[in-house]
Amino acid sequence: MRGADAHAEGADPEVLAAVDTLAGRWGGRAAEAERERRLPDATVAELLDAGLLQLAAPPGFGGAGHSWPTLVEAARHAARACPSTGWVIGVVGGHAALAGRLPRTAAETVFAAGARQVFATASAAADGRLTRVPGGFEVAGRWRFCSAADHADWFLLNGRGDDPADRVLVPLAAGQVRVEDGWDVSGMAGTGSRDITVDGVFVPEALTGSLPRCFAGRRPSGTGPSTSPYYLDEVPFPAYVNSCVIGPVLGCAEGAFAACLDRFARGGGGSRPLEQPLVRDGLTESAAELACARHLYEAVCARLHAAGTARRALSPEDAAAIGRDRAYLARLCVRSVHRLVQLAGTAAHFAGDPLARHWRDLQMMAAHRDLDWARNAAAYAAAAFAADGAGGPGAGTGPAPDGTRNAGDRVPSAPDGAGPSAAGGRGQAT
């Protein structure tokens, strides 16, 4: 059985080695990050210097151009030490790929200073609005859950334009927004996922993009079939950006398990908890749940990486299975760590305890819209059981043997408010 030290296929081992080298520093600053409700400046500088926020940035704009598994695996490794740092690598780092999918003029503008930047997103509009005016849009109001807002160079806002069925992606420079100090939360405090306010900024049409078009599959203009290992600028994007959360979630749970083992190995007061049958049984069941979560994680990574390298759209069945697996992965991680906290007892609830911090952070991560079980279960059931012609579920869908799309191979579109995900009645960082 592949263990916690195994890497998802397609992940760059050199990147993961760099993360592991720095992870001890991030773990040492985790309490500071939680207390200050943002990542320390030193941590962000290390992320940028090591290229860890540029992993998904397109090579055409100076990015490293890594595959998707490298991004989520780097986030997973970091989250074992500091869940907030892992979140910023995986989720905020993934936004660099989204910036590269903007229309050419807009992408050239946001990458004018190179790829060594922080791209925050603002998807959950509290009262934010985009109003079409001659030549572009006026942006005004407040957006929520902007992870790494204090360190952002650019904010990628999305909201409804004139057509209620469409959404518009608008980049704003950091100087065009006001970061609000309202991120007072019980978990994931270190992500600094603050609200932002925009006071009537005009954005030219050329610097905006239709979110569905930014998310759709595409082929770079003037090129034939691509042989580049970087595929995040070509494939339909929703399943990739909405699954960036699985690396931080799994890494956070693995970090909690390691912290619990360390606590029990140290003992205290002459006790030997590892000799107690209740403790041994609980640890074993939690370990089994994490092993199952890893299998689901590897399945999601394998599906997305295979589709990416082949430059093909996911079938509706594959897209639904990915949503199901990432939601159930989160369930398993929460169950596993909840049991560990129960085993550790009252001592595990002190604010500075690493197990307590991982538990708080994991609960906040699991509240993310993209991990909502009911939403993903409904999508999976619809894809798995809906009759599709005489052949039953799935008939006539999926890629043909030669890699082309059949008439029934429906390209998944960006769900309403997805990627960056919008708040759907539940708070989350983006």
Provide an overview of this structure.
The structure is a single chain. With 430 residues, this protein is an alpha+beta fold. The protein has three domains: 13-110, Butyryl-Coa Dehydrogenase, subunit A, domain 1 (Orthogonal Bundle); 119-210, Beta Barrel (Butyryl-CoA Dehydrogenase, subunit A, domain 2); 238-385, Butyryl-CoA Dehydrogenase, subunit A, domain 3 (Up-down Bundle), CATH 1.20.140. It has 13 helices and nine strands. It has helices spanning 13-28, 30-36, 41-49, 68-81, 83-100, 104-110, 211-215, 238-241, 246-266, 277-309, 316-344, 354-366, 373-385, and strands at residues 119-122, 124-125, 129-133, 136-146, 154-160, 167-173, 178-179, 194-204, 209-210. Strands 2, 3, 4, 7 and 8 form a five-stranded antiparallel beta sheet that branches. Strands 1-5-6-9 form a four-stranded mixed beta sheet. A hairpin with a 2-residue loop joins strand 3 (129-133) and strand 4. The model is unreliable at 389-427 (pLDDT under 50).
